[in-house]
Design goal:
Layout: H1 3-8, H2 12-40, H3 45-65, H4 69-98, H5 104-133, H6 138-158, H7 161-167
Length: about 180
Protein backbone atom coordinates (compact mmCIF):
# COMPACT_ATOMS: atom_id res chain seq x y z
CA UNK A 1 0.00 0.00 0.00
CA UNK A 2 1.03 3.56 -0.70
CA UNK A 3 1.79 6.04 2.09
CA UNK A 4 -1.27 8.18 1.36
CA UNK A 5 -3.50 5.11 1.17
CA UNK A 6 -2.32 4.08 4.62
CA UNK A 7 -2.22 7.54 6.18
CA UNK A 8 -5.58 8.84 4.94
CA UNK A 9 -7.37 5.59 4.14
CA UNK A 10 -7.48 6.53 0.46
CA UNK A 11 -8.41 4.38 -2.46
CA UNK A 12 -5.88 3.98 -5.27
CA UNK A 13 -7.93 6.09 -7.69
CA UNK A 14 -8.03 8.92 -5.12
CA UNK A 15 -4.24 8.89 -5.06
CA UNK A 16 -4.35 9.47 -8.81
CA UNK A 17 -6.61 12.48 -8.27
CA UNK A 18 -4.19 13.75 -5.62
CA UNK A 19 -1.27 13.52 -8.06
CA UNK A 20 -3.27 15.24 -10.79
CA UNK A 21 -4.32 18.02 -8.43
CA UNK A 22 -0.71 18.57 -7.37
CA UNK A 23 0.44 18.74 -11.00
CA UNK A 24 -2.28 21.25 -11.94
CA UNK A 25 -1.44 23.48 -8.95
CA UNK A 26 2.24 23.38 -9.89
CA UNK A 27 1.41 24.22 -13.53
CA UNK A 28 -0.82 27.14 -12.54
CA UNK A 29 1.83 28.42 -10.14
CA UNK A 30 4.55 28.37 -12.77
CA UNK A 31 2.20 29.88 -15.37
CA UNK A 32 0.64 32.70 -13.37
CA UNK A 33 2.34 33.26 -10.01
CA UNK A 34 6.05 33.54 -10.85
CA UNK A 35 5.93 37.17 -12.03
CA UNK A 36 3.81 38.49 -9.15
CA UNK A 37 5.88 36.46 -6.67
CA UNK A 38 9.14 37.88 -7.98
CA UNK A 39 7.67 41.38 -7.64
CA UNK A 40 6.63 40.57 -4.08
CA UNK A 41 10.19 39.44 -3.31
CA UNK A 42 11.75 42.42 -5.15
CA UNK A 43 13.22 40.11 -7.83
CA UNK A 44 15.30 38.33 -5.17
CA UNK A 45 15.33 34.68 -6.27
CA UNK A 46 17.18 33.49 -3.18
CA UNK A 47 14.65 35.12 -0.83
CA UNK A 48 11.78 33.59 -2.82
CA UNK A 49 13.44 30.18 -2.67
CA UNK A 50 14.15 30.37 1.05
CA UNK A 51 10.62 31.53 1.85
CA UNK A 52 9.17 28.77 -0.34
CA UNK A 53 11.29 26.12 1.38
CA UNK A 54 10.00 27.35 4.74
CA UNK A 55 6.42 27.07 3.42
CA UNK A 56 7.16 23.51 2.24
CA UNK A 57 8.56 22.66 5.68
CA UNK A 58 5.47 24.02 7.44
CA UNK A 59 3.25 22.18 4.92
CA UNK A 60 5.00 18.91 5.77
CA UNK A 61 4.36 19.57 9.46
CA UNK A 62 0.71 20.29 8.64
CA UNK A 63 0.62 16.90 6.92
CA UNK A 64 1.75 15.29 10.16
CA UNK A 65 -1.00 17.01 12.15
CA UNK A 66 -3.72 16.55 9.50
CA UNK A 67 -6.78 14.94 11.10
CA UNK A 68 -8.48 14.36 7.73
CA UNK A 69 -7.91 14.19 4.01
CA UNK A 70 -9.68 17.53 3.50
CA UNK A 71 -7.43 19.27 6.03
CA UNK A 72 -4.40 17.69 4.37
CA UNK A 73 -5.44 18.91 0.90
CA UNK A 74 -6.10 22.49 1.99
CA UNK A 75 -3.30 23.06 4.50
CA UNK A 76 -0.56 20.81 3.15
CA UNK A 77 -0.92 19.93 -0.53
CA UNK A 78 -1.98 23.31 -1.91
CA UNK A 79 0.66 25.45 -0.14
CA UNK A 80 3.36 22.83 -0.74
CA UNK A 81 2.67 22.66 -4.48
CA UNK A 82 2.55 26.45 -4.86
CA UNK A 83 5.85 26.75 -2.98
CA UNK A 84 7.38 23.89 -5.02
CA UNK A 85 6.58 25.73 -8.23
CA UNK A 86 8.22 28.86 -6.86
CA UNK A 87 11.31 26.90 -5.74
CA UNK A 88 11.70 25.48 -9.22
CA UNK A 89 11.57 28.92 -10.84
CA UNK A 90 13.73 30.56 -8.18
CA UNK A 91 16.47 27.95 -8.46
CA UNK A 92 16.68 28.43 -12.22
CA UNK A 93 16.75 32.20 -11.75
CA UNK A 94 19.47 32.00 -9.13
CA UNK A 95 21.72 29.98 -11.41
CA UNK A 96 20.98 32.21 -14.39
CA UNK A 97 22.05 35.29 -12.39
CA UNK A 98 25.37 33.94 -11.09
CA UNK A 99 26.79 32.40 -14.25
CA UNK A 100 27.97 34.09 -17.41
CA UNK A 101 25.42 34.09 -20.22
CA UNK A 102 27.43 31.66 -22.33
CA UNK A 103 27.39 29.07 -19.51
CA UNK A 104 23.71 29.36 -18.54
CA UNK A 105 22.55 26.49 -20.76
CA UNK A 106 25.21 24.15 -19.38
CA UNK A 107 24.39 24.95 -15.75
CA UNK A 108 20.61 24.67 -16.27
CA UNK A 109 21.19 21.33 -18.04
CA UNK A 110 23.19 20.02 -15.07
CA UNK A 111 20.44 21.28 -12.75
CA UNK A 112 17.83 19.39 -14.81
CA UNK A 113 19.86 16.18 -14.59
CA UNK A 114 20.26 16.56 -10.81
CA UNK A 115 16.53 17.20 -10.35
CA UNK A 116 15.69 14.12 -12.42
CA UNK A 117 18.09 12.07 -10.32
CA UNK A 118 16.43 13.34 -7.16
CA UNK A 119 13.09 12.17 -8.53
CA UNK A 120 14.52 8.66 -8.67
CA UNK A 121 16.48 8.69 -5.41
CA UNK A 122 13.93 10.39 -3.12
CA UNK A 123 11.33 7.57 -3.19
CA UNK A 124 14.09 5.04 -2.54
CA UNK A 125 15.47 6.71 0.55
CA UNK A 126 11.98 7.76 1.65
CA UNK A 127 10.77 4.18 1.63
CA UNK A 128 13.84 3.07 3.57
CA UNK A 129 13.16 5.74 6.20
CA UNK A 130 9.59 4.46 6.53
CA UNK A 131 10.85 0.91 6.92
CA UNK A 132 13.32 1.91 9.63
CA UNK A 133 10.98 4.20 11.57
CA UNK A 134 7.94 1.99 11.19
CA UNK A 135 5.21 4.55 11.76
CA UNK A 136 3.47 5.96 8.71
CA UNK A 137 3.00 9.45 10.18
CA UNK A 138 6.76 9.85 10.69
CA UNK A 139 7.15 10.43 6.93
CA UNK A 140 5.80 13.96 7.36
CA UNK A 141 8.25 14.77 10.17
CA UNK A 142 11.20 13.41 8.18
CA UNK A 143 10.02 15.40 5.17
CA UNK A 144 9.79 18.58 7.26
CA UNK A 145 13.29 18.01 8.63
CA UNK A 146 14.58 17.38 5.11
CA UNK A 147 13.18 20.66 3.78
CA UNK A 148 14.27 22.62 6.86
CA UNK A 149 17.81 21.36 6.29
CA UNK A 150 17.52 22.28 2.61
CA UNK A 151 16.42 25.81 3.59
CA UNK A 152 19.44 26.17 5.88
CA UNK A 153 21.78 24.92 3.14
CA UNK A 154 20.25 27.23 0.53
CA UNK A 155 20.61 30.25 2.78
CA UNK A 156 24.23 29.31 3.53
CA UNK A 157 25.09 28.73 -0.11
CA UNK A 158 23.31 31.67 -1.71
CA UNK A 159 26.13 34.11 -1.03
CA UNK A 160 28.84 31.79 -2.29
CA UNK A 161 27.04 30.02 -5.16
CA UNK A 162 29.05 31.59 -7.98
CA UNK A 163 32.32 30.62 -6.27
CA UNK A 164 31.10 27.02 -5.84
CA UNK A 165 30.01 26.79 -9.48
CA UNK A 166 33.41 28.06 -10.65
CA UNK A 167 35.25 25.58 -8.41
CA UNK A 168 33.09 22.76 -9.77
CA UNK A 169 34.13 23.80 -13.27
CA UNK A 170 30.56 24.49 -14.33
CA UNK A 171 31.18 28.13 -15.25
CA UNK A 172 34.09 30.09 -16.62
CA UNK A 173 36.31 32.11 -14.33
CA UNK A 174 35.30 35.74 -14.06
CA UNK A 175 37.75 38.08 -15.74
CA UNK A 176 38.32 41.44 -14.05
CA UNK A 177 37.53 44.42 -16.24
CA UNK A 178 40.45 46.59 -17.14
CA UNK A 179 39.81 50.25 -17.89
Amino acid sequence: MNYYELRFNMETYQRGYLSSMAAVINLLTQSFLIGPSLSLFSNDDSLMMLTSLIVITVSALMEYFSPSLSFFLVFSVIPKEIASGLVSAASRGMFAHVVPTEDTGKVLGVQGVLLSGMGVIAPLYGSQILLVLGKVKTKAIVSAAHFALTAVLVSALCSSSSVLLRKAGLVAQAHPHTD
